[in-house]
Amino acid sequence: MSILVWPPPLLLLLEALVAPAPAATTYRPDWNRLRGLARGRVERIPLSEMTRDEINMLVQELGFYRKSAPDAQVPPKHLWAPAKPPEDASEHADL
Question: Basic and acidic residues bias located where (predicted)?
């Protein structure tokens, strides 16, 4: 009976120590499926040597869109740029 009158934080600590943690132990990636994927290449660009204007020009050259004002609307053709829009883009019409 003495366990029932322990302070609640102590009971929660005991429960956390005794209860198993299934979320941390049940994830198993399928490594065989991942081996066949093509490895992407990442281009590294040293930004520390560039000015703000040069970085802004580079970002626009890479296909990113910059709004003219913070509250301006983004044109539909630039909503997903430079990424490709998903097949079900109609679900995300509010973006």
Answer: 85-95
Predicted confidence (pLDDT) per residue in 1-24, tens digit: 555 555 666 666 667 666 665 555
Which residue range is the domain that position 55 belongs to? 46-86
On whether residue 63 sits in a domain, the answer given is yes
- The answer to whether residue 52 is domain-embedded is yes
Q: Which residue matches tokens 């956390």?
A: 16
**Omega of the bond prior to 75 within 30 degrees of 0, cis?**
no
| DSSP letters for the chain | -GGGGS-HHHHHHHHHHHS--HHHHS----HHHHHTSPPP------GGGS-HHHHHHHHHHTT----SSTTPPPPGGGSSTTSPPPTTGGGGTT-
What's the predicted TM-score (pTM) here? 0.40
Query: How many domains does the structure of the chain reveal?
Result: 1
